[in-house]
Amino acid sequence: MPTSTRFVVSLHMLALMAEHGDTPLRSEDIAVSVNSNAAVVRALLLRLAAAGLTRSQLGNRGGAMLARPSSDIRLVDVYQAVEDRNFFAFHRQPPEGEGMIDRHITASLETMLTPVREALEDKLAGLTLDDVLDDIRGRAGVLSDQAQIGRGAIGEERRQATG
Question: DSSP for 17-79?
Answer without folding.
Answer: HHHHTTS-B-HHHHHHHHTS-HHHHHHHHHHHHHTTSEEEE-STT-EEEESS-GGG-BHHHHH
